[in-house]
Automatic annotation (TrEMBL):
<dbReference type="GO" id="GO:0045259">
    <property type="term" value="C:proton-transporting ATP synthase complex"/>
</dbReference>
<feature type="coiled-coil region">
    <location>
        <begin position="64"/>
        <end position="98"/>
    </location>
</feature>
<keyword id="KW-0066">ATP synthesis</keyword>
<dbReference type="Pfam" id="PF00430">
    <property type="entry name" value="ATP-synt_B"/>
</dbReference>
<feature type="transmembrane region" description="Helical">
    <location>
        <begin position="32"/>
        <end position="53"/>
    </location>
</feature>
<keyword id="KW-0175">Coiled coil</keyword>
<keyword id="KW-0793">Thylakoid</keyword>
<keyword id="KW-1133">Transmembrane helix</keyword>
<keyword id="KW-0375">Hydrogen ion transport</keyword>
<comment type="subunit">
    <text>F-type ATPases have 2 components, F(1) - the catalytic core - and F(0) - the membrane proton channel. F(1) has five subunits: alpha(3), beta(3), gamma(1), delta(1), epsilon(1). F(0) has four main subunits: a(1), b(1), b'(1) and c(10-14). The alpha and beta chains form an alternating ring which encloses part of the gamma chain. F(1) is attached to F(0) by a central stalk formed by the gamma and epsilon chains, while a peripheral stalk is formed by the delta, b and b' chains.</text>
</comment>
<keyword id="KW-0406">Ion transport</keyword>
<protein>
    <recommendedName>
        <fullName>ATP synthase subunit b, chloroplastic</fullName>
    </recommendedName>
</protein>
<dbReference type="GO" id="GO:0046933">
    <property type="term" value="F:proton-transporting ATP synthase activity, rotational mechanism"/>
</dbReference>
<keyword id="KW-0813">Transport</keyword>
<dbReference type="InterPro" id="IPR002146">
    <property type="entry name" value="ATP_synth_b/b'su_bac/chlpt"/>
</dbReference>
<keyword id="KW-0812">Transmembrane</keyword>
<dbReference type="GO" id="GO:0009535">
    <property type="term" value="C:chloroplast thylakoid membrane"/>
</dbReference>
């Protein structure tokens, strides 16, 4: 096994019966291993590879058909757009022929409508201001009245003693009695 060609022809060294050995000649074993692996891959992978290629081919064909359909649709849309463009150009020519009187009328109507709306907003604003002023005045009046009432009660409570209190009660009872006699 000294010669490389001998190892290719013999396909390795077989030890004598009853013992097991390991062929360490890399040049002799690698080509054999590679050929076996490649043979297995070709045998088992051929079907998988052909299926993958067939699927890829079908997807490509489907994409081409879809692209052609989209192209036809785009051509139709382009023709429709061109027809609409011609129609719009005709309308534009008609508007130019009729002049801009309709546009001016619409402009004046819009200006008048905006002026009326602004007047309404001004009126609403003035009403809101008057309402808020009246509410502020009412709040101030209530606060002044409350403070005056609190001040009067404070003055009465501080200057009222027991004797004056009894005198006031007696006077009120006397007035009540006089009112009762007038009614009878």
């Amino acid at each position: 096994m000294n010669n490389i060609t001998d190892s290719f022809l013999c396909l390795g060294y077989w030890p004598s019966a009853g013992s097991f050995g390991l062929n360490t000649d890399i040049l002799a074993t690698n080509p054999i291993n590679l050929s076996v692996v490649l043979g297995v891959l070709v045998f088992f992978g051929k079907g998988v590879l052909s299926n993958l290629l067939d699927n890829r081919k079908q997807r490509i064909l489907k994409t081409i058909r879809n692209s052609e359909e989209l192209r036809e649709g785009a051509i139709e849309q382009l023709e429709k757009a061109r027809a609409r463009l011609r129609k719009v150009e005709t309308e534009a020519d008609r508007f130019r022929a009729n002049g801009y009187s309709e546009i001016e009328r619409e402009k004046l109507n819009l200006i008048n409508s905006i002026y009326t709306t602004l007047e309404q907003f001004e009126n609403y604003k003035n009403e809101t201001i008057r309402f808020e002023q009246q509410r502020a005045i009412n709040q101030v009046q209530q606060r002044v009245f409350q403070q005056a009432l609190e001040g009067a009660l404070g003055t009465l409570n501080s200057s009222l003693n027991n004797e004056l209190h009894l005198l006031t009660i007696s006077a009120n009872i006397g007035m009540f009695g006089a009112m009762k006699e007038i009614k009878d």
